[in-house]
Amino acid sequence: FLTSLILALSLASSIQAHSAIISAFGTGNTRGTALGIRANTPRNAGNGAAQADTTIIRGNTGCGSTVAGGPNNIPQGIAAALNSGIAQVQAGGTLTMTVQIVNGDGRGPFNCAVDTTATGNNFQTIQMSQNSNAGNAPAPVTIQATLPANLACTGTSGGATGICLVKCTQSAGFGGCVPV
């Protein structure tokens, strides 16, 4: 019984660890978001409603899922992002992201990786130039990832070319994938 109780409590605490990438920008004025982000999600509620579009990512591939939308479909998510705008980046440049920390367990530090094929299958770790493990929830924090100097985005969506995915997560797997 004690083992089951400890397991249940540890799972409950990890389920409540939420954060979401609600804004991302690079060298241009266009701002994007992570896949699965919904504009009408209350950001300062600190409860279940605020967690609806937080992404949980397990493993090295894919872009995870949200409670509100289920699995993040990468091709559909990129197509939708292209309609609303994606962050413009350049090789060696910086991607600046606003991460909404829903509760204290959703804090960083964050690790980021880039998939130059934008398929979610080929992520390579990139350096963080600004990270955060602070922040009182609910609150936004800023993180920055430095893109490789030899970055060559080869992903496509519809007629668009030159797309990459940047995935950022913290230790519990919360974060998201940002098309750039």
Number of helices: 2
Question: Strand-residue fraction?
Answer: 25-35%
- Name the average pLDDT: 86
Stretches with pLDDT under 50, minimum 5 residues: 1-17
C-alpha Rg (nearest Å): 16 Å
Biggest sheet character: 8 strands, antiparallel
Relative helix content? 10-25%
> What is the approximate shape?
globular
Distance between the termini: 48 Å
- Give the ordered list of helices and strands: HEEEEHEEEEEEEE
Number of domains: 1
Description:
This protein is α+β, with helices and mostly antiparallel strands and 180 residues long. It has one domain. The chain contains two helices and twelve strands; from the N terminus they run αββββαββββββββ. An eight-stranded antiparallel β-sheet has the order 1-5-8-7-6-11-12-2, with no helix packed on it.
How would you describe this structure in keywords?
globular; signal; alpha+beta; 180 residues; 12 strands; 33% strand; two-stranded antiparallel sheet; 14% helix; Egh16-like; 8-stranded antiparallel β-sheet; disordered N terminus; Gas1-like protein
Write the topology of this structure:
Blueprint: H1 2-15, E1 19-25, E2 55-56, E3 65-66, E4 70-71, H2 74-84, E5 94-101, E6 111-115, E7 124-130, E8 139-146, E9 155-157, E10 160-163, E11 165-169, E12 174-179
Structure summary:
The protein has 180 residues and is of the alpha+beta class.
